[in-house]
Amino acid sequence: MAKKQSMESALSNQPHRRLNPLTREWVLVSPHRTQRPWQGQQEKRSDEKRPEYDDTCYLCPGNSRAGGQTNPPFTGTFVFTNDFSALLPEASGLSLTDDPLFCASAESGICKVICFSPRHDLSVPYMDLADVESVVRVWIEEYKGFKSMPDISYAQIFENKGAIMGCSNPHPHCQIWASADLPYVVSLEQKNQESYLAEHGRPMLFDYVNRELARKERLVYENDHFAVLVPFWAVWPFETMILPKRHRVSIEQLTDSETTALADAYQSLALLYDHVFDCEFPYTAGIHQAPTTEGNHEAWQMHMHFYPPLLRSATVRKFMVGYEMLATPQRDITAESAAETLREALSRA
Ligand code: H2U
Ligand code: ZN
Predict the structure, then answer these.
(1) Are residues 266 and 153 in the same domain?
(2) How many domains are there within the chain?
(3) What CATH number did the domain enclosing 309 receive?
(4) 297 noted as active-site residue
(5) What count of other Cβ atoms lies within 10 Å of the Cβ of residue 264?
(6) Which of 84, 110, 174 for mutating ligand 1's site (highest number of atoms within 8 Å of CB)?
(7) Does 36 score more than 90 pLDDT?
(8) Cα of 300 to ligand 2 centre, how many Å?
(9) What is the mean pLDDT of residues 8-22?
């Protein structure tokens, strides 16, 4: 007992590091440092009210896109191939060189954009739950579609929200970049989940969510099928994960009620985020899950990551610079105290 208390107090008061078991990267935690004064850059607040329809928006129904095509008068979700795709279906013919210093390889793939709804002004927290669920169903359909393509190994679904995250258009949307090879972070997570399954006989994130559900200190929100929590190893101040309570290697395995529950967890989290600093809370979010290739993917537990950049207000962001670029990421507020702030925002949402 004494040992447990001293561990808890060390985790809340003393500099220490924590391991991310998915990537095996360490984060330095410096809880004694939260009173540091800030005289650095302030971001601009961008919370002007948007119209329901904007005739200059590339993503509104009926408008012309930058690539010259015209959007149909869509009434629900709308999926199109990115006009400026980072990956192209035809590989370049460049074959992997065995030069250790000048190594390059061809990469091919398909990039798509998904508009959440015709409404230019409605972000996820303020859509009808049924419409958020339609977005999740599009993700599932797209994932299945990429599974049938032999040249695709992985479909990365992600959302950049807010200008501060480099989002080029405020019309609520997300993207899918599907590639011939496994992206680096995904391959790291796969390798470490496979090692964990081999050693412990259960999927890593299945064990993890059960431990967190029992402890509750980093739990932010839960429904019947999903938990929202600040991971023990979070790097970004208000980083969170959405985790299924049962073993699900990909979104394709979700039952109808789990699909609704994922939409609810996503929407509830996006809404509580908006109450943290009383602004449209920016983030990059995305799903990690089993590759779209055949094979044994039992080590995988599908999950969503949310990486919001804000630190202490709508205008003060965290910078990953200095020691973090050269050595290891660092945070001041502990994951436990961030979870407390998020639970408090939920009570106001
Ligand atoms: P963000 O999610 O980071 O805002 O990116 C939007 C994507 O939409 C971006 O990849 C694409 C851009 O290439 N896009 C089009 O495909 N057509 C357009 O007319 C505008 C933007
Ligand atoms: Zn729009």
Answers:
(1) no
(2) 2
(3) 3.30.428.10
(4) no
(5) 19
(6) 84
(7) no
(8) 36
(9) 94
pLDDT at 82 over 70: yes
pLDDT at 105 over 70: yes
CA–centroid distance, 82 to ligand 1, in Å, is 6
Q: Output the six-digit token pair for 326.
A: 């050269």
Does pLDDT of 6 surpass 70?
yes
Which atom from ligand 1 is nearest to the alpha carbon of 80? Answer: 16
Say yes or no: 173 and 229 in one domain.
no
pLDDT tens figures, 240-252: 999 999 999 999 9
Please determine, for residue 133, whether its predicted confidence score (pLDDT) is greater than 90: yes
* Mean pLDDT computed over every residue of the chain: 94
Measured distance CA(143)–CA(137) in Å, rounded: 10
Residues 209 and 300 in one domain: yes
Assess if residue 65 is contained within a domain. no
Catalytic residue among 120, 171, 173, 225: 173
Answer whether 141's CB lies under 8 Å from 155's CB. no
Within 8 A by CB and 6+ apart from 104, the residues are: 94, 96, 97
| Parent domain of 160 | 78-179
- Which ligand is closest to the CA of 169, given by its number? 1
**DSSP secondary structure of 38-88:** --S--PPP--PPPPS--TT-TTSTTPBPTTS-B----SS-EEEE-TT-SS-
89 & 228 share domain: no
Proximal ligand: closest to the CA of 283 = 1
Distance CA 101, CA 104 (A): 9
Kindly report the protein residue whose alpha carbon is nearest to atom 13 of ligand 1: 84
Ligand nearest to C-alpha 119: 2
The residue-averaged pLDDT of 252-281 equals 97
Of the residues 138, 163, 179, the one at which a domain ends: 179
What's the gap in Å between 64 CA and the centre of ligand 2? Answer: 11
42 alpha carbon – ligand 1 mean position (Å): 26
